[in-house]
Amino acid sequence: AAAPVEVTVEAAKAGDVIDRNIFGQFAEHLGTGIYGGIWVGKDSPIPNVRGIRSDVVAALKAIKVPNVRWPGGCFADEYHWRDGIGSADKRRVQVNTNWGSVPESNAFGTHEFMDFAEQIGADPYVSVNLGSGSPAEAAAWVEYMTAEKDTTLAKERAANGHAAPWKVPLLGIGNENWGCGGAMSADHYVEEMKRFTNFIRNFNPAQREKDKMKRIAVGWDGGKLDYTEQVMKAWKDHVYSWDIEGISLHSYTVGGAWPPHRVATGFGLDDYAAVIKDTLRMDQLITTQTAIMDKYDPAKKVFLAVDEWGAWLTPTPGTNPGFLMQQNSIRDGILAALNLNIFARHADRVKVANIAQMINVLQAMIFTDGAKMVLTPTYHVYRMYVPFQDARFVPVKFAAGEYVRGAISMPKLDAMAARDAQGHLWLSLVNIDPEAPASIHLSGYKSASGDVLTAPKVDSVNTFDAPSVVAPRPVSVKGKAGGLTLDLPARSVTVVRLD
Ligand code: AHR
């Protein structure tokens, strides 16, 4: 067996705080992400609180979801908030034109979303409709959510069941307006963004300065630079009352050129390597984005929100292709850990990230089918990474090695560390190599204990019938005089506390 890789945690060096919001989720009105996945209705035989399924709430509470982005995605730029408030039987039924052309009942609207966010303990990240809506409509929605005084909209909210104003800590100013959000040029978007942020006001006085609503403008996806450039340029020069606090980056892992063509299960080592290699591009994408932002904002006042990311694979056979349902294997768990590590390394700029999407859609945490629920490998990584929420980044030195598969070469090992508020040191180790175990050596620690996630095969998944094929198991090693050695199974994610 190969000698253990020496890993040095530079515990005396403290980096930036890893904002808990990088562990954010995304829930769009898409397929069964909302209807079935979250919302089953008050009269459902599936246990629920006010229509929101309790098994899903309990599972999400365990991963301490910091924020949920809603209602889209592409859906957001066709969403009219008034369709989703008031008596359920009077709500407008429309066609979900983006996703499968199925009926959208609007049964899940603002009150239901806020209730869901509250039940799981997450902050709402609301995306307003810039593409087909108006600044007046968006401003009225934010007033409806946040007004505390006796205004007409605050009274209407109270009449609909919620007297107290809600907090809206994160607000998206459109979504992919270069594409499904209206195919706008960057210049056109910037003019709209200025109008929207100028007129939208948060009326909730409980939102202290540090929690002030942060407005996130649209940036680029993997292929475009102009939005980021124009938005940042406008931000630098702005003198009037509009403002933004963040800008987005969307990037999906497809394992090569668009469109998605890699299968989610039943694949081998070639596919594994192609997808993992592709996901590692995230580091370069953030570096490129950051370089543009640095030109206009060297003090890093504006943050980067990677508010759509994850694996986009081919749909599960037999499902509606517009519902974007795909299985989730150990490869997805590894992919999630690698991206979270990249965000942590860019903690100075990346303050928000939202994996797409939370339930039943793309790289999901949870699958549901009627009353059944199963947790995915990606979910388990999010649970293992809870200690990194708001922990302070600590640099780690290690030789990453090389894994080669055909023409593809990539690192074998990845590592990331942070110190939590209680002073505990946490280390994540990803053995990217799908074929061979590895081991690492650490000096100066008495013990390492935590969890390891691996699987029998490179494409192992959890199903409703076999829900624990990919599940974390505890790991604990004691140090000797020379330090401690930790074994890392092939294709695994390990998170340990070092003492
Ligand atoms: O997450 C699915 C879709 O991907 C979103 O609606 C859109 O913003 C992106 O193109």
UniProtKB/TrEMBL annotation:
Catalytic reaction(s) noted: Hydrolysis of terminal non-reducing alpha-L-arabinofuranoside residues in alpha-L-arabinosides
Cited Gene3D superfamilies: Glycosidases (3.20.20.80), Golgi alpha-mannosidase II (2.60.40.1180)
Keywords: Carbohydrate metabolism, Glycosidase, Hydrolase, Plasmid, Signal
Listed InterPro entries: Alpha-L-AF_C, ASD1_cat, GH, Glyco_hydro_b
Domain Alpha-L-arabinofuranosidase C-terminal residue range list: 307-492
Domain of life where this protein originates: Bacteria
Enzymatic class: hydrolase
This enzyme's EC code(s): 3.2.1.55
Family: Belongs to the glycosyl hydrolase 51 family.
Quaternary state and interactors: Homohexamer; trimer of dimers.
PANTHER family named in the record: ALPHA-L-ARABINOFURANOSIDASE C-RELATED, INTRACELLULAR EXO-ALPHA-L-ARABINOFURANOSIDASE 2
The protein's name: non-reducing end alpha-L-arabinofuranosidase
Organism: Novosphingobium humi
